[in-house]
Write a structure and sequence with these properties.
The protein is α+β, with helices and mostly antiparallel strands and 303 residues long. It has ten helices and 13 strands. The protein folds into two domains: 231 residues, Hsp33 domain (3-Layer(bab) Sandwich), CATH 3.55.30.10; 47 residues, CBS domain Like. A six-stranded mixed beta sheet has the order 7-6-3-4-5-11, covered by helices on one side. Strand 4 and strand 5 form a beta hairpin. It is elongated and about 70 Å long. The mean pLDDT is 90. The structure holds zinc ion. The site of zinc ion has 6 residues, from loops.
Length: 303
């Protein structure tokens, strides 16, 4: 069993670029997520697959900024959010309801128990003035994370896409294949069979094999008769973007009355980041400073 040491994406292309692929592997970065969220195994594994899927999507869609994958569930899991940025950083959070969750609960019973779950993909630009936001919404149409994302891709991006994803307590691994539009007008033969050939080879992949095989080895094992080109690896990492300044801005939006009432009740205002579980604490002095004109938002930390 070889678990990933680097956290990375590996891109390749094949058959005169008519098939493109990406592998994702997470070890330490996945551990950083798990250290911050206590999750039942069934939810943990689906979250891992969703992170893998979001990173693969982000790698495919040409976009500078953030890709946010949100699953709104109508079962015991009410929300999953994965945010990937073009610098390779990502973060994720899960909201669970009250219902107990079996260890072997499947994707549908977790997120689409009544058929009303939905998947929202948001592309958020880098900054307010140059960035733009695009949002696509699809029903949770499929029995697995891979099927839902495949349908999203054929719907929204109109690129035939296949995904294989697996996650457990130790690792996340995934493979994406995409059929690229053939380069019309260029000399040379078009390899019409490449897409069915590649997807049939990858269809033999079981989750356990995917989890235990490093990307390079997996590509060799599946596609050893093919000529793969354009290998390009990019590093991934867990990173949260919360800060004391952002929490302060949020408290200011909430207003003085609201902040003071929490302060009266609890003696301190504590805001916990749902992505990284960091607790940002504001005592009476910090709270008073929030509403003093002209004070910088980055008030020195008082913990
Ligand atoms: Zn955070």
């Amino acid at each position: 069993m070889e678990r990933p040491s680097p956290d990375r994406l590996l891109r390749f292309s094949a058959a005169a670029a008519s098939v493109r692929g990406e592998c994702v592997e997470l070890g330490a970065a996945w551990q950083a997520v798990l250290a911050r969220h206590e999750l039942p195994p069934a939810v943990r594994d689906r979250l891992g697959e969703l992170i893998g899927a979001a990173l693969l999507l982000a790698a495919t869609i040409k976009h500078d900024g953030a890709l946010i994958l949100q699953l709104h569930g109508d079962g015991p899991v009410s929300l999953v959010v994965v945010e990937c940025r073009s610098d390779g950083s990502f973060r994720a959070t899960v909201k669970l309801g009250e219902a107990p969750i079996a260890d072997d609960a499947d994707f549908t019973s977790l997120l689409n128990a009544n058929g009303r779950g939905r998947c929202v993909v948001t592309l958020d630009g880098t900054s307010g003035d140059t960035g733009h936001t695009y949002q696509g919404v699809v029903p949770l149409d499929g029995d697995s994370v891979a099927e839902v994302i495949e349908r999203y891709m054929s719907h929204s991006e109109q690129i035939p896409t296949r995904l294989w994803l697996a996650a457990d307590a130790g690792a996340v691994r995934g493979l994406m294949l995409q059929r690229m539009p053939s380069a019309g007008g260029l000399a040379g033969e078009v390899d019409e069979d490449a897409w069915p050939r590649f997807t049939q080879l990858a269809a033999t992949l079981e989750p356990a094999e995917l989890l235990d095989t490093p990307a390079e080895k997996l590509l060799h094992r599946l596609f050893w008769q093919e000529r793969l080109a354009g290998r390009d690896a990019r590093t991934l990492r867990f990173a949260c973007r919360c800060s004391r300044g952002k929490v302060a801005a949020m408290l200011r939006m909430l207003g003085r009355d609201e902040v003071e009432s929490v302060l009266d009740e609890q003696g301190v205002v504590e805001v916990r980041c749902e992505f990284c579980n960091e607790a940002w604490r504001f005592d009476a002095v910090d709270c008073a400073a929030l509403f003093v004109e002209g004070l910088a938002p980055e008030h020195p930390t008082r913990q």
